[in-house]
């Protein structure tokens, strides 16, 4: 008889995210304790931790693991890109239909828009303004004209903030802007960092059509800095797991909501190897 099948990639990635959360919350954890907590072998836990080390999310010491001191779940881009991957891809596929050849776009730095950037890279002759180095690299690499809104570089977001970005936004006008939010409650939008809340709010009104992409995990949450409400947006894309009362609140503000189906991941047998 053969060994147990390896679990699907989505299951492995979710466990690694949970491991990272555990390390961040406790500061320092023994690797044997992590293996016991998650019910996997020591070898499997070392593989998980090595993957997190490669992404510069944790440091392995002798028998222990620690997170980088400045790392938080809300602000680490390299953590956020691994969250709700299927949902982000589904939202991106739907939102890409809003983009036509020759358009001028405004795109914020949210990890939710990274899959969108990859999809619209195939659309001809776009002009894109963004404060995200990740978005800029994706689209410039595909041959599009990209205006990078520079200012203070924030490594944890791989993007720029500050008065220079706000001033540049004041002088722009786009066909469509794409934004995401860290937290949404009853139609109100929040972010854990003031500079980014200001940028998101400033983007609103700088395009003929403003689109918000937000998966279900962002609803019913708050953060220290508000940046307006969804009533300022023309269209919201979300997934079917978004709470109905939250969607009703958005519709009550007069904003169109499109609920996007998310394909179910393949289910394999979760191995303890």
TrEMBL record:
It comes from the Bacteria. SUPFAM superfamilies: NagB/RpiA/CoA transferase-like, Winged helix' DNA-binding domain. Keywords: DNA-binding, Repressor, Transcription, Transcription regulation. Residues 12-67 form the HTH deoR-type domain. The keyword tRNA processing does not apply. GO terms for molecular function: DNA binding; DNA-binding transcription factor activity. PANTHER family: GLYCEROL-3-PHOSPHATE REGULON REPRESSOR, HTH-TYPE TRANSCRIPTIONAL REGULATOR SRLR-RELATED. Pfam families: DeoRC, HTH_DeoR. InterPro entries: Carb_Metab_HTH_regulators, DeoR-like_C, DeoR_HTH, NagB/RpiA_transferase-like, Tscrpt_reg_HTH_DeoR_CS, WH-like_DNA-bd_sf, WH_DNA-bd_sf. It comes from Saccharopolyspora hirsuta. Repressor of the lactose catabolism operon. Galactose-6-phosphate is the inducer. This is Lactose phosphotransferase system repressor. SMART domains: DeoRC, HTH_DEOR. Gene3D superfamilies: 3.40.50.1360, Winged helix-like DNA-binding domain superfamily/Winged helix DNA-binding domain.
